[in-house]
# Entry
Amino acid sequence: MAITRDKKQALVADFSELLATSKMTVFAKYKDLSVADLQELRRSAREKGIVIRVIKNRLVRVALSENDVYKETDTSALTGQLLYATCDSDEVAPAQVLNDFAKTHPALAFAGAFANDGTTLSVDEVTALASLPSREQMVAQVVAQLLSPVHDVTNALSGNLHALLDGVEAKATS
# Structure
């Protein structure tokens, strides 16, 4: 059954809004995935604040052309059956969720991504992004690095204090 013109315009408007608020839009080939697999992917993505859309590539091109940031974006990679993962809070999260899902479902394969500045990322670049730690992990690593000198000083001072107290105690008992 064909989609009406009004429905297509609504789909384009919805996807345009997702593009405008998204920090990263990753697209992947999903041929040979069952409906149950896609529902599982959507469920796991939703838990991390990621929106998964399956929309015709022609409509995506229209949405891209209507957005000032994406007007000059290369759309040559938009071929075949693609799904689009967007996130408005984390640049790396869509790639990570799709990568995690692809580990158990090899039919899913990256096709590329659009950054929020209008650039197109290749499959290799998206794969590299997917291997980065999550935002929370990176923040935790930075905090740990910042706190390590404080811990080192505290441990050194407490070690000297214990040695001093042991010396005073030994002197007092003799």
Remarks:
- The domain at 5-132 is CATH 3.30.70.1730 (Alpha-Beta Plaits).
